[in-house]
UniProtKB/TrEMBL annotation:
Homodimer. Its cofactor is pyridoxal 5'-phosphate. Transmembrane segments: none annotated. The lineage of its organism: Bacteria, Bacillati, Actinomycetota, Actinomycetes, Kitasatosporales. Keywords: Aminotransferase, Biotin biosynthesis, Cytoplasm, Pyridoxal phosphate, S-adenosyl-L-methionine, Transferase. Its EC number is 2.6.1.62. This is Adenosylmethionine-8-amino-7-oxononanoate aminotransferase. The gene is bioA. It catalyses: (8S)-8-amino-7-oxononanoate + S-adenosyl-L-methionine = S-adenosyl-4-methylsulfanyl-2-oxobutanoate + (7R,8S)-7,8-diammoniononanoate.
Length: 430
């Protein structure tokens, strides 16, 4: 099909994320991708290729068209791309589950494979509610989170997204009403705020009787505003949950697999949740798959109840193709020097974003692991900012009042510098 025809049909028929129908802005047509570069079908702002500063929403940590992941996909495709998971099992799912148990913090031993991050959060919530129900404490049905979070776009996850800043305020009267603590004070290295620690402890204590679980993103709040906080706040939630009989769910869908400089962000806090959600980088950005892990206590608690099963089973649960690629992706990560690469990118982002701090309209810049953020003091003009970045040869997708990047871990130093230049240009123009 001709490019104009494709774009025309796209506009007429294809819904894009968070977009209207028919679409009002023209998406870029991508022809292929390799390494850290997206190849466009046509020149845009003078460029045919763009360095991907987004890792396709945190997922493509090894870059595109990676020989090891391609090989894993091809090999599995020749055996079977899918079989149902009810009553059947297969090597890719078993291998992946074992690997996830091995690499995640100790104590998380059981793995539910889900088909997207949002679904893995739904499963986590269902696990927690059902756990208490099985203990005869069916009144513990609510969730506690802090403001500024993001947990996905299906119903339960939406109910714990930031009720104001996010896109879900529209549904505030319809969603389950959860308990919100204030947003964690900013700064990964900032000394923990005693008053806030007390606020968290008190909020858990006050609502303990009705709480099934506390659910938060540890250390980095991603799509809710790209903010970093002290691991001490995650630690105090663990303590408060233990003290008051509440389960702790950590959503590591964005932070998992090295992005923050630790393999899992909960390691910064030195704690283990009762339930953990993984997704995004799990398959190296190849296919959709997520996982909900839990401890034996949660699993046994559910399985001893009067409904002794977890009533959840997506059609494509455990998809062999996705599981084979996920296993290869996690293997590739662990065999390589992911920590060194993330540290190198962190250094590159810090150096390259220093200049942005002085630009008019910029409130601050912040970097943690392979995440860089330029915080503006105004709503970004998305189109102008996108064009400015593309003109500098980089794909960025700014949102709200920030321009940010989380590059693939294989991004070379020159390309990291180019991403920073593009972020500065986007911040200046947007
Ligand atoms: C992206 C994200 C989700 C949702 O995952 P999907 O695969 O988009 O459904 C949930 N939680 C966090 C922290 C995320 O970053």
């Amino acid at each position: 099909m001709r490019h104009e025809q494709l774009l025309d049909l796209d506009r007429q028929h294809v819904w894009h994320p968070y977009g209207p129908m028919p679409g009002r802005t023209e998406p870029l047509l991508v022809e292929s991708a390799a390494g850290v570069r997206l190849r466009l079908a046509e020149e845009f702002c003078g460029q045919r290729e763009l360095v991907d500063g987004m890792s396709s929403w945190w997922s493509a940590v090894h870059g595109y068209n990676h020989p090891v992941l391609n090989e894993a996909a091809h090999r599995q495709l020749e055996r079977m791309s899918h079989v149902m998971f009810g009553g059947l099992t297969h090597e890719p799912a078993v291998r992946l589950a074992k690997r996830l148990v091995d690499v995640t913090p100790p104590g998380l031993e059981h793995v539910f494979l889900a088909d997207s991050g949002s679904v893995s959060v739904e499963v986590a919530v269902k696990m927690c509610l059902q756990y208490w129900r099985s203990q005869g404490l069916g009144g513990k049905q609510r969730l506690l989170t802090w403001r500024g979070g993001y947990h996905g776009d299906t119903w339960q996850p939406m109910s714990v997204c930031d009720p104001e800043g996010g896109m879900h305020e529209l549904w505030s009267g319809v969603l389950p009403r959860q308990v919100f603590a204030s947003a964690p004070p900013s700064g990964f290295d900032a000394p923990p705020d005693e008053q806030y620690l007390r606020h968290l402890r008190e909020t858990v204590a006050r609502h303990a009787d009705e709480l099934a679980a506390v659910i938060v993103e540890p250390v980095v709040q991603g799509a809710g505003g790209m903010r970093f906080h002290s691991p001490a706040y995650v630690r105090v939630l663990r303590e408060a949950c233990d003290e008051h009989g509440v389960l702790l769910v950590l959503d590591e869908i964005a932070t998992g697999f090295g992005r923050t400089g630790a393999l899992f962000a909960s390691e910064h806090a030195g704690i283990v949740p009762d339930v953990m959600c993984l997704g995004k980088a799990l398959t190296g950005g190849y296919l959709t798959m997520a996982a909900t892990l839990c401890t034996p206590r949660v699993a046994e608690g559910i399985s001893r109840g009067d409904v002794p099963v977890l009533a959840h089973g997506p059609t494509f649960m455990g998809n062999p193709l996705a599981a084979a690629v996920a296993d290869a992706s996690v293997g590739l990560l662990l065999d390589g020097d992911w920590a060194g690469e993330v540290r190198r990118i962190e250094g590159g982002l810090r150096a390259g974003l220093a200049e942005a701090a002085g630009l008019p309209g910029v409130r601050e810049t912040r970097v943690l692991g392979a995440i860089g953020v330029v915080q503006l003091d105004h709503e970004v003009d998305m189109e102008r900012a996108t064009r400015a970045a593309a003109g500098a040869g980089v794909w960025l997708r700014p949102f709200r009042d920030m321009v940010y990047a989380m590059p693939p871990y294989v991004t070379g130093d020159e390309d990291v510098a180019r991403i920073c230049t593009a972020m500065c240009a986007a911040a200046a123009e947007g």
